[in-house]
Specification:
Number of strands of chain B: 8
Largest sheet of chain A: 5 strands, antiparallel
Number of domains of chain B: 1
Helix content of chain B: 10-25%
Structural class of chain B: alpha+beta
Shape of chain B: elongated
Number of helices of chain B: 3
Helix content of chain A: 10-25%
Order of helices and strands of chain B: HHEEEEEEEEH
CATH class of chain B: Mainly Beta
Mean pLDDT of chain B: 88
CATH topology of chain A: Jelly Rolls
Largest sheet of chain B: 8 strands, antiparallel, barrel
Order of helices and strands of chain A: HEEEEEEEEE
Distance between the termini of chain B: 41 Å
Low-confidence stretches of chain B: 155-159
Oligomer: heterodimer
Strand order of the largest sheet of chain A: 2-8-4-5-7
Shape of chain A: elongated
CATH architecture of chain A: Sandwich
Number of helices of chain A: 1
Radius of gyration of chain B: 20 Å
């Protein structure tokens, strides 16, 4: 009888342990940064970029976690805004692509909008459904690249854009 | 006094040796420029981002898709949500590091014609020629293409 009880206790413990190891919880987070490049800009794709310093402590409100707790990070949405007052508008571009690059993770396309229709100074892109970008958050920094495809040459000395990337972090519990 | 002369001599020798051999960065940066694959259907510009090298399509011989009559897009991308990515500007070479004399590796090459990504190693056989070897798994089971530089290195331009 005792043997029987021990066996089921052991099975229950293993199942409970496995369940605890595999359980995760989703958290929303977002990063925002200004990308820039010096001109002139020739017709075709021109890259604006900026380095993002990873600070896990400030990414999710009221949730402390470490890189080891990250199981998965997916892209929810990407929005790009051209600063107010800039003479250039989104109708100056054919399309836009956003990528992440770093020393320790393979470059990843995270969002695209092609073609760009309409005007104004803000765009919401189509996010990659498959991009897995957790490795970027397991290092100190990474680079955000925005490729604006200019319709025409532009002799402006520089260009800036603000990028907001909404993310879903899957954290181990 | 003798010590000062010795230090000055050491600095001079190091400077001469360094400039003679060239820094690793300068050697690695020789990959930058515009290159043409042997099929001649595209031109690829290789640039450095962070500490790695990436190559993007800057010219296509046939930029318009005959089916859609619109600029070609990455219609074979395994990620359906990214299939509208334009081919012009697409980074087909990614994440290359200067790992050995005249060699850049640890990167990948993407073939937009079938949507496949291959491991890749780049060997510079001379200043204007690259052997681009794409492979799956082991290097011996791969295919090499020869790319030619379309733009002379900036150092040579000034000569």
């Amino acid at each position: 009888m005792m043997k029987f009880f021990r066996f089921y206790a052991l099975v229950f413990s293993v199942v409970a342990l496995l369940a605890a190891c595999g359980s995760t919880e989703d958290f929303d987070a977002s990063i925002q940064l200004d990308v820039s490049a010096e001109g002139p800009f020739f017709s075709g794709p021109n890259t604006l970029q900026a380095e993002y310093t990873v600070n896990l402590k400030s990414l999710i409100a009221n949730k402390e976690f470490t890189a080891n707790d990250i199981k998965e990070v997916k892209v929810k949405s990407v929005t790009i805004k051209i600063p107010e007052g800039d003479a250039i508008g989104i109708d100056s571009f054919n399309n836009v692509v956003v990528q992440l690059a770093s020393d320790n993770a393979p470059m990843t396309n995270i969002a695209i909008l092609n073609p760009i229709n309409g005007n104004g100074n803000e765009l919401t892109l189509t996010s990659s459904a498959d991009a897995e970008i957790e490795d970027f958050f397991k290092q100190e920094k990474f680079i955000v690249l925005v490729d604006w495809d200019f319709k025409e040459d532009s002799m402006r000395p520089e260009m800036h854009s603000n990028v907001k990337i909404d993310l879903v972090f899957k954290l181990k519990q | 006094m003798n010590r000062a002369i010795l230090v000055a001599l050491l600095v001079a020798v190091s400077t001469i040796t360094y400039s003679f051999l060239g820094s690793d960065d300068a050697k690695a940066d020789r990959l930058k420029g515009i290159w043409q694959p042997s099929h001649g259907k595209a031109k690829i510009k290789i640039d450095k981002i962070g500490s790695k090298y990436y190559g993007k399509i800057v010219w296509l011989k046939e930029p318009i898709d005959p089916e859609t009559k619109a600029p070609k897009v990455d219609k074979n991308n395994p990620d359906e949500s990214l299939r509208s990515t334009p081919l012009k500007g697409y980074r087909i070479l990614k994440d290359f590091e200067y790992t050995d004399e005249d060699e850049w590796s640890n990167g990948t090459i993407y073939d937009p014609e079938n949507g496949s990504t291959y491991s890749c190693v780049i060997k510079m056989t001379d200043e204007n020629t690259l052997d681009i070897r794409g492979y799956i798994g082991i290097k011996t089971l791969g295919r090499t293409d020869v790319w030619k530089r379309l733009e002379m290195p900036s150092k040579k331009k000034s000569e």
